[in-house]
Hints:
GO molecular function: NAD+ binding; UDP-glucuronate decarboxylase activity
Largest sheet: 7 strands, parallel
Strand content: 5-15%
Bound molecules: nicotinamide-adenine-dinucleotide, 2-acetamido-2-deoxy-beta-D-glucopyranose
InterPro entries: NAD(P)-bd_dom, NAD(P)-bd_dom_sf, UXS-like
Catalytic activity: UDP-alpha-D-glucuronate + H(+) = UDP-alpha-D-xylose + CO2
Strand order of the largest sheet: 3-2-1-4-5-6-11
Main location: Golgi
Structural class: alpha/beta
Subcellular location: Golgi apparatus, Golgi stack membrane
Distance between the termini: 102 Å
Helix content: 40-55%
Amino acid sequence: MTISVSVFAFVQRRVKVFLLVFLITILVACWALTRSNESVPVTRLSKKLMQEIQQKIEVHNVEMFKQALKPINLKLSELERNFQDYGKKRFLPVKYLAEKDRKRILITGGAGFVGSHLTDALMMAGHEVTVADNYFTGRKQNVEHWIGHENFELINHDIVEPLLIEVDQIYHLASPASPPNYMYNPIKTIKTNAIGTLNMLGLAKRVHARLLLASTSEVYGDPEQHPQNEDYWGHVNPIGPRACYDEGKRVAETMCYAYAKQEHVEVRVARIFNTFGPRMHMSDGRVVSNFIMQALQDKPLTVYGSGTQTRSFQYVSDLVNGLILLMNSNYSKPVNIGNPDEHTIMQFAQIIKKAVGGKAPIVNVKKMEDDPQRRKPDISRALKYLGWKPSVALEVGINRTIEYFKRELHKSKKSKLVDL
Ligand SMILES: NC(=O)c1ccc[n+]([C@@H]2O[C@H](COP(=O)([O-])OP(=O)(O)OC[C@H]3O[C@@H](n4cnc5c(N)ncnc54)[C@H](O)[C@@H]3O)[C@@H](O)[C@H]2O)c1
Ligand SMILES: *[C@@H]1O[C@H](CO)[C@@H](O)[C@H](O)[C@H]1NC(C)=O
Ligand SMILES: *[C@@H]1O[C@H](CO)[C@@H](O)[C@H](O)[C@H]1NC(C)=O
Ligand SMILES: *[C@@H]1O[C@H](CO)[C@@H](O)[C@H](O)[C@H]1NC(C)=O
Protein backbone atom coordinates (compact mmCIF):
# COMPACT_ATOMS: atom_id res chain seq x y z
CA MET A 1 0.00 0.00 0.00
CA THR A 2 2.85 2.36 0.71
CA ILE A 3 4.02 1.92 -2.93
CA SER A 4 0.53 2.74 -4.26
CA VAL A 5 0.26 5.84 -2.11
CA SER A 6 3.64 7.12 -3.25
CA VAL A 7 2.69 6.58 -6.91
CA PHE A 8 -0.61 8.45 -6.40
CA ALA A 9 1.33 11.46 -5.36
CA PHE A 10 2.85 11.87 -8.84
CA VAL A 11 -0.14 11.37 -11.14
CA GLN A 12 -3.13 13.49 -12.04
CA ARG A 13 -6.46 13.11 -10.29
CA ARG A 14 -8.39 11.53 -13.25
CA VAL A 15 -5.76 8.94 -13.77
CA LYS A 16 -5.85 8.21 -10.07
CA VAL A 17 -9.56 7.41 -10.20
CA PHE A 18 -9.12 5.25 -13.31
CA LEU A 19 -6.33 3.22 -11.77
CA LEU A 20 -8.35 2.71 -8.61
CA VAL A 21 -11.31 1.34 -10.54
CA PHE A 22 -8.94 -0.89 -12.49
CA LEU A 23 -7.36 -2.24 -9.31
CA ILE A 24 -10.71 -2.95 -7.72
CA THR A 25 -11.88 -4.83 -10.85
CA ILE A 26 -8.82 -7.06 -10.74
CA LEU A 27 -9.29 -7.72 -7.04
CA VAL A 28 -12.96 -8.66 -7.56
CA ALA A 29 -11.98 -10.96 -10.43
CA CYS A 30 -9.34 -12.68 -8.29
CA TRP A 31 -11.83 -13.11 -5.48
CA ALA A 32 -14.43 -14.60 -7.85
CA LEU A 33 -11.87 -16.99 -9.25
CA THR A 34 -10.81 -18.23 -5.85
CA ARG A 35 -14.45 -18.66 -4.80
CA SER A 36 -15.20 -20.77 -7.91
CA ASN A 37 -15.05 -24.57 -7.29
CA GLU A 38 -13.15 -24.94 -10.57
CA SER A 39 -9.81 -23.39 -9.72
CA VAL A 40 -8.37 -24.45 -13.06
CA PRO A 41 -6.97 -22.11 -15.70
CA VAL A 42 -9.41 -20.93 -18.37
CA THR A 43 -7.70 -22.79 -21.23
CA ARG A 44 -7.95 -26.19 -19.47
CA LEU A 45 -11.53 -25.54 -18.54
CA SER A 46 -12.56 -24.95 -22.14
CA LYS A 47 -10.74 -28.12 -23.29
CA LYS A 48 -12.67 -30.21 -20.80
CA LEU A 49 -15.87 -28.55 -21.86
CA MET A 50 -15.10 -29.23 -25.52
CA GLN A 51 -14.55 -32.91 -24.77
CA GLU A 52 -17.85 -33.11 -22.97
CA ILE A 53 -19.63 -31.42 -25.81
CA GLN A 54 -17.97 -33.69 -28.36
CA GLN A 55 -18.94 -36.77 -26.42
CA LYS A 56 -22.53 -35.60 -26.24
CA ILE A 57 -22.62 -34.97 -29.99
CA GLU A 58 -21.17 -38.38 -30.67
CA VAL A 59 -23.69 -40.18 -28.52
CA HIS A 60 -26.40 -38.19 -30.19
CA ASN A 61 -25.10 -38.99 -33.65
CA VAL A 62 -24.85 -42.71 -32.97
CA GLU A 63 -28.43 -42.63 -31.70
CA MET A 64 -29.58 -40.77 -34.79
CA PHE A 65 -27.68 -43.23 -37.00
CA LYS A 66 -29.21 -46.20 -35.22
CA GLN A 67 -32.69 -44.72 -35.60
CA ALA A 68 -32.15 -44.10 -39.28
CA LEU A 69 -30.85 -47.61 -39.82
CA LYS A 70 -33.46 -49.46 -37.82
CA PRO A 71 -35.51 -50.68 -40.82
CA ILE A 72 -32.46 -52.13 -42.59
CA ASN A 73 -30.60 -53.23 -39.49
CA LEU A 74 -30.96 -56.89 -40.36
CA LYS A 75 -29.48 -56.48 -43.81
CA LEU A 76 -26.66 -54.41 -42.41
CA SER A 77 -25.59 -57.15 -40.03
CA GLU A 78 -25.70 -59.63 -42.90
CA LEU A 79 -23.57 -57.32 -44.96
CA GLU A 80 -21.13 -56.97 -42.09
CA ARG A 81 -20.83 -60.72 -41.80
CA ASN A 82 -20.25 -61.02 -45.54
CA PHE A 83 -17.50 -58.46 -45.37
CA GLN A 84 -15.88 -60.38 -42.55
CA ASP A 85 -16.11 -63.61 -44.56
CA TYR A 86 -14.80 -61.80 -47.63
CA GLY A 87 -11.72 -60.69 -45.74
CA LYS A 88 -10.80 -64.26 -44.84
CA LYS A 89 -12.40 -66.22 -47.71
CA ARG A 90 -12.18 -69.88 -46.82
CA PHE A 91 -11.81 -72.55 -49.45
CA LEU A 92 -12.54 -76.22 -49.24
CA PRO A 93 -9.30 -77.91 -48.21
CA VAL A 94 -7.04 -78.90 -51.10
CA LYS A 95 -4.42 -81.61 -50.96
CA TYR A 96 -0.81 -80.61 -51.41
CA LEU A 97 0.75 -82.22 -54.47
CA ALA A 98 4.43 -82.24 -55.33
CA GLU A 99 5.23 -80.56 -58.64
CA LYS A 100 5.75 -83.83 -60.50
CA ASP A 101 2.26 -85.04 -59.52
CA ARG A 102 0.51 -81.71 -59.90
CA LYS A 103 -1.15 -81.29 -63.29
CA ARG A 104 -2.36 -78.21 -65.14
CA ILE A 105 -5.85 -79.16 -66.18
CA LEU A 106 -8.25 -77.42 -68.55
CA ILE A 107 -11.97 -78.13 -68.15
CA THR A 108 -14.09 -76.80 -71.00
CA GLY A 109 -17.67 -76.32 -69.84
CA GLY A 110 -16.37 -76.38 -66.26
CA ALA A 111 -19.04 -73.96 -65.03
CA GLY A 112 -21.77 -76.42 -65.98
CA PHE A 113 -23.41 -79.14 -63.94
CA VAL A 114 -20.91 -81.99 -64.44
CA GLY A 115 -17.93 -79.68 -65.03
CA SER A 116 -18.32 -77.90 -61.69
CA HIS A 117 -18.30 -81.18 -59.75
CA LEU A 118 -15.25 -82.30 -61.73
CA THR A 119 -13.62 -78.95 -60.86
CA ASP A 120 -14.30 -79.61 -57.16
CA ALA A 121 -12.75 -83.08 -57.31
CA LEU A 122 -9.61 -82.03 -59.21
CA MET A 123 -9.09 -78.91 -57.09
CA MET A 124 -9.38 -80.91 -53.87
CA ALA A 125 -6.92 -83.44 -55.28
CA GLY A 126 -4.40 -80.57 -55.48
CA HIS A 127 -4.24 -79.86 -59.24
CA GLU A 128 -4.21 -76.51 -61.03
CA VAL A 129 -7.54 -76.11 -62.76
CA THR A 130 -8.50 -73.71 -65.53
CA VAL A 131 -12.18 -73.53 -66.43
CA ALA A 132 -13.13 -72.19 -69.86
CA ASP A 133 -16.84 -71.54 -70.29
CA ASN A 134 -19.06 -69.14 -72.22
CA TYR A 135 -21.88 -69.44 -69.65
CA PHE A 136 -24.39 -70.56 -72.26
CA THR A 137 -25.89 -73.09 -69.86
CA GLY A 138 -23.31 -72.86 -67.08
CA ARG A 139 -23.20 -70.42 -64.17
CA LYS A 140 -20.33 -68.67 -62.52
CA GLN A 141 -22.06 -69.51 -59.26
CA ASN A 142 -21.29 -73.22 -59.77
CA VAL A 143 -17.55 -72.57 -59.30
CA GLU A 144 -17.86 -69.37 -57.27
CA HIS A 145 -16.37 -71.08 -54.20
CA TRP A 146 -12.98 -71.46 -55.97
CA ILE A 147 -12.65 -67.94 -57.33
CA GLY A 148 -9.59 -66.37 -55.77
CA HIS A 149 -7.85 -69.68 -55.02
CA GLU A 150 -4.27 -69.74 -56.25
CA ASN A 151 -4.78 -73.06 -58.08
CA PHE A 152 -7.93 -71.92 -59.87
CA GLU A 153 -8.59 -69.86 -62.95
CA LEU A 154 -11.84 -69.03 -64.72
CA ILE A 155 -11.89 -67.87 -68.34
CA ASN A 156 -14.96 -66.53 -70.12
CA HIS A 157 -14.27 -68.20 -73.46
CA ASP A 158 -16.28 -69.68 -76.31
CA ILE A 159 -14.45 -72.78 -77.53
CA VAL A 160 -15.64 -72.20 -81.09
CA GLU A 161 -12.72 -69.74 -80.97
CA PRO A 162 -9.22 -71.22 -80.47
CA LEU A 163 -7.68 -71.13 -77.00
CA LEU A 164 -3.93 -71.12 -76.47
CA ILE A 165 -2.80 -72.13 -72.98
CA GLU A 166 -0.27 -74.53 -71.49
CA VAL A 167 -1.93 -77.60 -70.00
CA ASP A 168 -1.27 -81.28 -69.34
CA GLN A 169 -4.83 -82.58 -69.51
CA ILE A 170 -8.05 -81.37 -71.13
CA TYR A 171 -11.47 -82.51 -69.95
CA HIS A 172 -13.58 -81.43 -72.90
CA LEU A 173 -17.14 -81.02 -71.61
CA ALA A 174 -18.32 -77.82 -73.30
CA SER A 175 -21.61 -78.48 -75.06
CA PRO A 176 -25.23 -77.86 -74.21
CA ALA A 177 -26.48 -81.19 -72.90
CA SER A 178 -30.25 -81.20 -72.45
CA PRO A 179 -32.73 -81.29 -75.35
CA PRO A 180 -34.21 -77.79 -74.87
CA ASN A 181 -30.71 -76.34 -74.56
CA TYR A 182 -29.19 -78.06 -77.57
CA MET A 183 -32.30 -77.58 -79.72
CA TYR A 184 -32.44 -73.87 -78.84
CA ASN A 185 -29.69 -73.11 -81.37
CA PRO A 186 -28.89 -76.31 -83.30
CA ILE A 187 -26.26 -74.64 -85.48
CA LYS A 188 -24.39 -73.40 -82.43
CA THR A 189 -24.63 -76.91 -80.92
CA ILE A 190 -23.03 -78.37 -84.06
CA LYS A 191 -20.33 -75.67 -84.11
CA THR A 192 -19.50 -76.24 -80.42
CA ASN A 193 -19.18 -79.98 -80.88
CA ALA A 194 -17.42 -79.89 -84.26
CA ILE A 195 -15.31 -76.71 -84.40
CA GLY A 196 -14.95 -76.55 -80.61
CA THR A 197 -13.67 -80.13 -80.45
CA LEU A 198 -11.28 -79.47 -83.36
CA ASN A 199 -9.91 -76.45 -81.47
CA MET A 200 -9.37 -78.51 -78.33
CA LEU A 201 -7.72 -81.36 -80.23
CA GLY A 202 -5.48 -78.79 -81.93
CA LEU A 203 -4.51 -77.45 -78.51
CA ALA A 204 -3.88 -80.98 -77.20
CA LYS A 205 -1.64 -81.65 -80.18
CA ARG A 206 0.38 -78.44 -79.75
CA VAL A 207 1.01 -78.75 -76.03
CA HIS A 208 1.08 -82.59 -75.91
CA ALA A 209 -1.88 -82.75 -73.56
CA ARG A 210 -4.19 -85.70 -73.14
CA LEU A 211 -7.84 -84.99 -74.06
CA LEU A 212 -10.93 -86.62 -72.61
CA LEU A 213 -14.14 -86.10 -74.60
CA ALA A 214 -17.42 -86.09 -72.71
CA SER A 215 -19.41 -88.03 -75.28
CA THR A 216 -22.88 -89.36 -74.67
CA SER A 217 -25.10 -92.42 -74.78
CA GLU A 218 -27.01 -90.43 -77.42
CA VAL A 219 -24.42 -91.66 -79.95
CA TYR A 220 -26.39 -94.95 -79.74
CA GLY A 221 -29.57 -93.08 -80.75
CA ASP A 222 -32.76 -95.08 -80.21
CA PRO A 223 -30.89 -98.34 -79.64
CA GLU A 224 -31.91 -101.69 -81.07
CA GLN A 225 -29.50 -103.47 -78.78
CA HIS A 226 -30.05 -103.71 -75.09
CA PRO A 227 -28.14 -102.98 -72.92
CA GLN A 228 -25.75 -100.95 -75.06
CA ASN A 229 -22.07 -101.86 -75.09
CA GLU A 230 -19.32 -99.77 -76.68
CA ASP A 231 -19.15 -101.90 -79.82
CA TYR A 232 -22.71 -101.05 -80.79
CA TRP A 233 -22.73 -98.52 -83.67
CA GLY A 234 -26.02 -96.93 -82.83
CA HIS A 235 -29.34 -96.09 -84.45
CA VAL A 236 -29.41 -92.36 -85.03
CA ASN A 237 -31.70 -90.26 -87.20
CA PRO A 238 -29.28 -87.83 -88.93
CA ILE A 239 -31.98 -85.25 -89.67
CA GLY A 240 -34.16 -85.52 -86.55
CA PRO A 241 -34.51 -82.80 -83.90
CA ARG A 242 -31.79 -84.38 -81.75
CA ALA A 243 -29.34 -84.79 -84.64
CA CYS A 244 -27.42 -81.56 -83.91
CA TYR A 245 -26.35 -83.09 -80.60
CA ASP A 246 -26.20 -86.83 -81.45
CA GLU A 247 -24.33 -86.33 -84.70
CA GLY A 248 -22.26 -83.52 -83.17
CA LYS A 249 -20.97 -85.93 -80.51
CA ARG A 250 -20.48 -88.70 -83.07
CA VAL A 251 -18.30 -86.48 -85.25
CA ALA A 252 -16.47 -85.28 -82.11
CA GLU A 253 -15.57 -88.93 -81.38
CA THR A 254 -14.51 -89.40 -85.02
CA MET A 255 -12.20 -86.38 -84.75
CA CYS A 256 -10.65 -87.68 -81.52
CA TYR A 257 -9.61 -90.94 -83.14
CA ALA A 258 -8.46 -89.14 -86.30
CA TYR A 259 -6.13 -86.98 -84.17
CA ALA A 260 -5.02 -90.04 -82.21
CA LYS A 261 -4.15 -91.94 -85.39
CA GLN A 262 -2.67 -89.14 -87.47
CA GLU A 263 -1.15 -86.84 -84.83
CA HIS A 264 -0.63 -89.27 -81.93
CA VAL A 265 -2.77 -87.19 -79.58
CA GLU A 266 -3.71 -89.21 -76.49
CA VAL A 267 -7.51 -89.32 -76.34
CA ARG A 268 -10.07 -90.75 -73.93
CA VAL A 269 -13.76 -91.01 -74.79
CA ALA A 270 -16.40 -91.31 -72.07
CA ARG A 271 -19.90 -92.17 -73.27
CA ILE A 272 -21.90 -90.66 -70.47
CA PHE A 273 -25.38 -91.95 -69.66
CA ASN A 274 -28.07 -89.88 -67.96
CA THR A 275 -26.68 -88.14 -64.90
CA PHE A 276 -28.35 -86.14 -62.17
CA GLY A 277 -27.45 -84.31 -58.98
CA PRO A 278 -27.16 -80.88 -57.37
CA ARG A 279 -26.41 -78.00 -59.76
CA MET A 280 -28.26 -79.67 -62.61
CA HIS A 281 -30.53 -77.29 -64.47
CA MET A 282 -33.86 -76.96 -62.74
CA SER A 283 -35.96 -76.27 -65.82
CA ASP A 284 -34.18 -78.17 -68.57
CA GLY A 285 -37.09 -80.48 -69.27
CA ARG A 286 -35.23 -83.65 -68.29
CA VAL A 287 -37.01 -86.37 -66.40
CA VAL A 288 -35.47 -85.99 -62.95
CA SER A 289 -35.51 -82.18 -62.84
CA ASN A 290 -39.04 -82.07 -64.26
CA PHE A 291 -40.42 -84.48 -61.67
CA ILE A 292 -38.65 -82.85 -58.72
CA MET A 293 -39.73 -79.35 -59.71
CA GLN A 294 -43.30 -80.46 -60.27
CA ALA A 295 -43.46 -82.37 -56.99
CA LEU A 296 -41.92 -79.50 -55.00
CA GLN A 297 -44.49 -77.10 -56.43
CA ASP A 298 -47.41 -79.49 -55.93
CA LYS A 299 -48.01 -79.68 -59.66
CA PRO A 300 -48.95 -82.90 -61.49
CA LEU A 301 -45.92 -85.03 -62.48
CA THR A 302 -46.07 -85.30 -66.29
CA VAL A 303 -45.03 -88.61 -67.84
CA TYR A 304 -44.51 -88.51 -71.63
CA GLY A 305 -46.27 -91.40 -73.36
CA SER A 306 -47.22 -94.48 -71.36
CA GLY A 307 -44.27 -94.23 -68.95
CA THR A 308 -43.03 -97.73 -69.79
CA GLN A 309 -39.90 -96.33 -71.52
CA THR A 310 -36.87 -96.88 -69.31
CA ARG A 311 -33.94 -94.80 -68.14
CA SER A 312 -31.04 -95.51 -65.85
CA PHE A 313 -29.61 -92.57 -63.93
CA GLN A 314 -26.25 -92.20 -62.27
CA TYR A 315 -25.44 -89.77 -59.51
CA VAL A 316 -22.94 -87.08 -60.51
CA SER A 317 -20.17 -88.07 -58.06
CA ASP A 318 -20.03 -91.55 -59.60
CA LEU A 319 -19.60 -89.98 -63.05
CA VAL A 320 -16.82 -87.67 -61.84
CA ASN A 321 -14.92 -90.63 -60.36
CA GLY A 322 -15.30 -92.51 -63.64
CA LEU A 323 -14.06 -89.56 -65.72
CA ILE A 324 -10.94 -89.11 -63.58
CA LEU A 325 -10.17 -92.84 -63.63
CA LEU A 326 -10.58 -92.95 -67.42
CA MET A 327 -8.41 -89.89 -68.00
CA ASN A 328 -5.57 -91.42 -66.00
CA SER A 329 -5.90 -94.95 -67.35
CA ASN A 330 -4.08 -96.21 -70.40
CA TYR A 331 -7.31 -97.31 -72.06
CA SER A 332 -8.07 -95.23 -75.17
CA LYS A 333 -11.25 -96.75 -76.65
CA PRO A 334 -14.72 -95.41 -75.75
CA VAL A 335 -15.99 -96.36 -72.30
CA ASN A 336 -19.60 -96.26 -71.09
CA ILE A 337 -19.99 -94.42 -67.79
CA GLY A 338 -23.45 -94.85 -66.36
CA ASN A 339 -25.59 -96.66 -63.84
CA PRO A 340 -27.24 -99.86 -65.14
CA ASP A 341 -29.91 -99.68 -62.43
CA GLU A 342 -32.86 -99.40 -64.84
CA HIS A 343 -36.29 -97.99 -64.02
CA THR A 344 -39.35 -97.09 -66.03
CA ILE A 345 -40.20 -93.41 -66.20
CA MET A 346 -43.37 -94.20 -64.24
CA GLN A 347 -41.25 -95.74 -61.43
CA PHE A 348 -39.11 -92.58 -61.32
CA ALA A 349 -42.22 -90.46 -60.97
CA GLN A 350 -43.36 -92.61 -58.04
CA ILE A 351 -39.94 -92.61 -56.30
CA ILE A 352 -39.64 -88.82 -56.56
CA LYS A 353 -43.23 -88.25 -55.51
CA LYS A 354 -42.60 -90.36 -52.43
CA ALA A 355 -39.30 -88.63 -51.55
CA VAL A 356 -40.79 -85.14 -51.88
CA GLY A 357 -44.13 -85.98 -50.27
CA GLY A 358 -47.22 -84.01 -51.17
CA LYS A 359 -50.30 -84.99 -53.07
CA ALA A 360 -49.47 -84.06 -56.67
CA PRO A 361 -50.91 -86.64 -59.10
CA ILE A 362 -48.94 -88.42 -61.85
CA VAL A 363 -50.43 -87.77 -65.33
CA ASN A 364 -49.63 -89.08 -68.82
CA VAL A 365 -49.08 -86.61 -71.69
CA LYS A 366 -48.25 -86.96 -75.43
CA LYS A 367 -45.11 -88.92 -76.38
CA MET A 368 -42.06 -86.94 -77.59
CA GLU A 369 -40.53 -87.38 -81.06
CA ASP A 370 -37.41 -89.61 -81.24
CA ASP A 371 -37.64 -90.27 -77.49
CA PRO A 372 -35.52 -93.40 -76.98
CA GLN A 373 -37.56 -96.27 -75.55
CA ARG A 374 -34.83 -98.01 -73.56
CA ARG A 375 -31.52 -96.84 -72.31
CA LYS A 376 -29.21 -98.92 -70.13
CA PRO A 377 -25.43 -99.01 -70.16
CA ASP A 378 -23.33 -102.14 -70.33
CA ILE A 379 -20.51 -101.11 -68.01
CA SER A 380 -18.40 -104.25 -68.10
CA ARG A 381 -15.65 -102.38 -69.96
CA ALA A 382 -15.41 -99.67 -67.27
CA LEU A 383 -15.28 -102.36 -64.60
CA LYS A 384 -12.63 -104.36 -66.44
CA TYR A 385 -10.27 -101.52 -67.45
CA LEU A 386 -10.94 -98.87 -64.81
CA GLY A 387 -12.19 -100.95 -61.91
CA TRP A 388 -15.12 -98.55 -61.86
CA LYS A 389 -18.75 -99.05 -61.00
CA PRO A 390 -21.35 -96.66 -59.59
CA SER A 391 -21.78 -96.65 -55.82
CA VAL A 392 -24.46 -94.07 -54.96
CA ALA A 393 -27.96 -95.51 -54.58
CA LEU A 394 -30.76 -93.82 -56.52
CA GLU A 395 -32.74 -92.77 -53.42
CA VAL A 396 -29.65 -91.22 -51.81
CA GLY A 397 -28.89 -89.19 -54.93
CA ILE A 398 -32.53 -88.19 -55.34
CA ASN A 399 -32.67 -86.92 -51.76
CA ARG A 400 -29.52 -84.81 -52.20
CA THR A 401 -30.87 -83.37 -55.44
CA ILE A 402 -34.22 -82.55 -53.85
CA GLU A 403 -32.37 -80.64 -51.11
CA TYR A 404 -30.53 -78.60 -53.74
CA PHE A 405 -33.72 -77.84 -55.68
CA LYS A 406 -35.45 -76.78 -52.47
CA ARG A 407 -32.66 -74.32 -51.68
CA GLU A 408 -32.67 -72.89 -55.19
CA LEU A 409 -36.45 -72.55 -55.22
CA HIS A 410 -36.31 -70.81 -51.86
CA LYS A 411 -33.67 -68.40 -53.17
CA SER A 412 -35.64 -67.53 -56.28
CA LYS A 413 -38.83 -67.07 -54.27
CA LYS A 414 -36.99 -64.76 -51.88
CA SER A 415 -35.59 -62.62 -54.67
CA LYS A 416 -38.90 -62.74 -56.57
CA LEU A 417 -36.93 -62.06 -59.70
CA VAL A 418 -37.44 -65.46 -61.22
CA ASP A 419 -40.89 -66.77 -61.87
CA LEU A 420 -40.57 -70.54 -61.82
N1 LIG B 1 -25.70 -84.50 -67.76
C1 LIG B 1 -25.88 -85.59 -68.48
O1 LIG B 1 -26.77 -86.37 -68.20
C2 LIG B 1 -24.97 -85.88 -69.65
C3 LIG B 1 -25.19 -87.06 -70.36
C4 LIG B 1 -24.37 -87.33 -71.43
C5 LIG B 1 -23.36 -86.47 -71.78
N2 LIG B 1 -23.16 -85.33 -71.09
C6 LIG B 1 -22.09 -84.43 -71.54
O2 LIG B 1 -21.39 -83.93 -70.44
C7 LIG B 1 -21.00 -82.58 -70.70
C8 LIG B 1 -21.47 -81.68 -69.57
O3 LIG B 1 -22.87 -81.75 -69.47
P1 LIG B 1 -23.69 -81.02 -68.31
O4 LIG B 1 -24.82 -81.87 -67.97
O5 LIG B 1 -22.77 -80.58 -67.26
O6 LIG B 1 -24.27 -79.78 -69.11
P2 LIG B 1 -24.19 -78.23 -68.78
O7 LIG B 1 -25.04 -77.55 -69.79
O8 LIG B 1 -24.47 -77.99 -67.36
O9 LIG B 1 -22.67 -77.90 -69.03
C9 LIG B 1 -22.14 -77.59 -70.28
C10 LIG B 1 -21.23 -76.40 -70.12
O10 LIG B 1 -20.63 -76.08 -71.37
C11 LIG B 1 -20.70 -74.68 -71.56
N3 LIG B 1 -20.65 -74.40 -72.99
C12 LIG B 1 -21.58 -74.69 -73.92
N4 LIG B 1 -21.19 -74.26 -75.15
C13 LIG B 1 -19.97 -73.69 -74.97
C14 LIG B 1 -19.04 -73.06 -75.85
N5 LIG B 1 -19.29 -72.92 -77.15
N6 LIG B 1 -17.90 -72.58 -75.31
C15 LIG B 1 -17.64 -72.69 -74.00
N7 LIG B 1 -18.46 -73.29 -73.13
C16 LIG B 1 -19.63 -73.78 -73.62
C17 LIG B 1 -21.98 -74.28 -70.90
O11 LIG B 1 -22.02 -72.92 -70.58
C18 LIG B 1 -21.99 -75.16 -69.67
O12 LIG B 1 -21.32 -74.57 -68.60
C19 LIG B 1 -21.59 -82.21 -72.05
O13 LIG B 1 -20.60 -82.32 -73.03
C20 LIG B 1 -22.66 -83.23 -72.26
O14 LIG B 1 -22.85 -83.48 -73.63
C21 LIG B 1 -23.95 -85.01 -70.03
C1 LIG C 1 -18.84 -26.99 -9.24
O1 LIG C 1 -19.50 -26.45 -10.36
C2 LIG C 1 -20.25 -27.38 -11.13
C3 LIG C 1 -20.81 -26.70 -12.35
O2 LIG C 1 -20.24 -25.52 -12.61
C4 LIG C 1 -21.33 -27.98 -10.26
O3 LIG C 1 -22.06 -28.97 -10.99
C5 LIG C 1 -20.73 -28.58 -9.01
O4 LIG C 1 -21.74 -29.03 -8.16
C6 LIG C 1 -19.84 -27.56 -8.27
N1 LIG C 1 -19.19 -28.18 -7.16
C7 LIG C 1 -19.09 -27.60 -5.93
C8 LIG C 1 -18.38 -28.38 -4.91
O5 LIG C 1 -19.63 -26.53 -5.69
C1 LIG D 1 -2.13 -100.60 -69.13
O1 LIG D 1 -1.72 -100.63 -67.77
C2 LIG D 1 -1.77 -101.89 -67.20
C3 LIG D 1 -1.39 -101.78 -65.75
O2 LIG D 1 -1.79 -100.56 -65.23
C4 LIG D 1 -0.84 -102.84 -67.94
O3 LIG D 1 -0.96 -104.15 -67.38
C5 LIG D 1 -1.20 -102.87 -69.39
O4 LIG D 1 -0.28 -103.63 -70.11
C6 LIG D 1 -1.23 -101.48 -69.97
N1 LIG D 1 -1.71 -101.54 -71.32
C7 LIG D 1 -1.21 -100.81 -72.30
C8 LIG D 1 -1.86 -100.99 -73.63
O5 LIG D 1 -0.27 -100.06 -72.14
C1 LIG E 1 -34.92 -89.84 -48.55
O1 LIG E 1 -35.82 -88.90 -48.01
C2 LIG E 1 -37.04 -89.48 -47.55
C3 LIG E 1 -37.98 -88.36 -47.19
O2 LIG E 1 -37.34 -87.32 -46.51
C4 LIG E 1 -36.76 -90.43 -46.41
O3 LIG E 1 -37.95 -91.03 -45.98
C5 LIG E 1 -35.80 -91.51 -46.90
O4 LIG E 1 -35.43 -92.34 -45.83
C6 LIG E 1 -34.56 -90.89 -47.52
N1 LIG E 1 -33.79 -91.96 -48.14
C7 LIG E 1 -32.48 -92.06 -48.06
C8 LIG E 1 -31.87 -93.23 -48.72
O5 LIG E 1 -31.79 -91.21 -47.51
